[in-house]
Design goal:
By secondary structure, the chain is α+β, with helices and mostly antiparallel strands. It has three domains: 148 residues, Glutamine synthetase, N-terminal domain (Ubiquitin-like (UB roll)); 380 residues, 2-Layer Sandwich (Creatine Kinase, Chain A, domain 2), CATH 3.30.590; 131 residues, Up-down Bundle (Four Helix Bundle (Hemerythrin (Met), subunit A)), CATH 1.20.120.1560. It has 28 helices and 17 strands. The strands form three sheets. Strands 9, 10, 11, 12, 13, 14, 15, 16 and 17 form a nine-stranded mixed β-sheet that branches. Strands 1, 2, 5, 6, 7 and 8 form a six-stranded mixed β-sheet that branches. Strands 3-4 form a two-stranded antiparallel ribbon. Helix 10 crosses helix 11 and helix 25 packs antiparallel against helix 27. Bound molecules: adenosine-5'-diphosphate and magnesium ion. The site of adenosine-5'-diphosphate has 17 residues, from strand 9, strand 11 and strand 14.
Amino acid sequence: MAFHRFKALETVLSRVPVNVTLPSTKVSEFFGENVFGIDAMREYLSDEAFKSVMAAMEHGTQIERKMADQVAAAMKAWANAKGATHYTHWFQPLTGTTAEKHDAFFEPTEGGRAIERFGGGQLVQQEPDASSFPNGGIRNTFEARGYTAWDPTSPAFVMGKTLCIPTIFVSYTGEALDFKTPLLKALNVLDKAAVDVCQYFDKNVTKVIATLGWEQEYFLVDEALFMARPDLAMTGRALFGHAPAKGQQLDDHYFGSIPDRATAFMRDFEIESLKLGIPIKTRHNEVAPNQFECAPVFEECNLAVDHNQLLMDVMEKVARRHNFRVLLHEKPFAGVNGSGKHNNWSMSTNTGKNLLSPGKTPKTNLQFLTFFINTVKAVHDNADLLRACIASANNDHRLGANEAPPAIMSVFLGTQLSNVLDELERKVKTGKMSPDEKTALKLGVGKIPDILLDNTDRNRTSPFAFTGNKFEFRAVGSSANCAGPMTVLNGIVAHQLIKFKREVDDLIAKNVEKDEAIFQILRKCIIDSKKIRFEGNGYGEEWVKEAEKRGLSNFKTTPEALKAFVSTNTLNIFVRNHIMNDREQHARYDIYLETYTKKIQIESRVMADLAWNHIIPTAIKYQSSLIENVKGLKEIMNAADFKKNAQIQLEMITEISEHINIIKTKVDEMTEARKKANVITDVEKQASEYCNKVKSYFDTIRYHVDKLELIVDDESWPLPKYRELLFTK
Ligand code: ADP
Ligand code: MG
């Protein structure tokens, strides 16, 4: 009986379309209404308290305790008016999701009464019982104290009936246990480093922020079908499943019209997101069937990171209202495109200038080139670290597959800017330049905006591409917290800018004229970072060979890639710039390895369970029905007819046995390999054992299960198939 699948499909077919009640007002009338943002703060805070929060947001100044009390009271009044009964410190532990522990606003008092209470103390700091969050050995369980501390740069918001206060999460000894702490530090270092470099060009620049605009890809799967797939439910991806006859080869889904049911879901989560101040703006179908993308307008990096975390949460919640499940996994379906989260990144000054956007004058263009070239240099010097910060068990399925950015880091500049860089390299003289030479150089630089306008290069195969006024880091995984890659990117660019400034100043000290000094150091950066530039097809085999020749790394698996996290180079950058100390960085390394191991372990277990409990019994039952059929034929036919008519069935019976045998043998071997890996205590060795000795069984087992899917009667196949998962609208 096609029990599970049939039942699941029935639920789909009988479903009444979801009606979404849209707010009758315009977006501008409800945008950010659930955020304790500038408007709400103005309304609820005294002038003094307002100024104190604004100063903290803009300059990172401390908020005095007295002020914190005022802010807390105002926040509570505002949240209560929105119907909130509880508050929580909202933080981003290294599990990758967000964490919250809700406390009611009241506190019991003597005589069985209660008073409403939420003061500065509760706002500024909390001590969640955090012993079971990953900490990489930083916090022993007996010393379970971890603190969350208010991050005033990201506004509080109301979600459901809870006031959520964005916070950092640190150990008792002050070490970072979360994603946000190092990000804030990296952003701070970048601010200072970039402001210093901006002084060469514009003395009015006193603050530089990093900007981030992410694009979130995801799949939608009908909830009933999802529930009938234990692998999807437990690992987020289909461990088995034969590719459907029709996949994405017709490219008819990309930018096609969005199915009604998906549109209803999108509208609903977009409205929730907009109310939370997430400036979501774009939505479209992606390449694979049932794959979609959404993107907001870019924002300051820390806020954008919080908004992405929040959005993923909102999406999952809202999806359930529509009987959908959102798959944020990087590769839920083998053979079909995976999902990424492009991180569009730039830097912006308090004077309103995008530092990666060419300007109108040679001076602003030299500033543009300075930031542009330093970014390329930073990527060149830290390519392995960039690869490490996007590594995960999930993303391993995507990077290097032929639809995703390769695991090899490179930068795409576009023909025009490549030419500009080549020209700079040729024209800048190491010795003293004549006034004519300088003028020619500056004139050349002055032409950038014009040529960029008709720069139509849109190389989609590069993991790190310049797209006119920003870089797009495309290798980030769809389920990742952007804070990881953003800490690295901002950190390495800051580090490079500091180095650049020092080198230019050294030349200036030797009486080299400022612009000339800048040109000379830029030229050096261009020469030194040549091997990271690649304009060709990043998906091609030739690139793998070429990259190897150039000496670029190609780490295919997470355990290999993660090593760069604790390299001397990485530690040097993070420790020296106070983004992360040695212990924190090593702890993180251990946590990521452990997470990797656990993911593969779970997948392996689920795979074995499914094979044993779903696949093999189904195959045997079907095989038995074939045997019955053969027996029957034998009974009613003479030997000659029987030989002719039972041939196919007999072959199928053998084929099924062969597949079952291999599945059984490989599952047993894999289980043994797991047992061996489980007793390894060294996290590094264990992760690599799981990678090389356990995961290596996945493809073979899957191959034979998928073959059975093709042979066994459709009616009795226990798992919803790709065509159902991907084409149910
Ligand atoms: P696609 O990559 O799909 O072609 P776009 O190139 O239009 O899409 O990129 C869209 C994303 O880039 C949006 O999220 C947008 O907000 C973001 N973006 C645009 N300018 C900047 C910037 N200066 N800094 C960061 N992100 C930006
Ligand atoms: Mg993009």
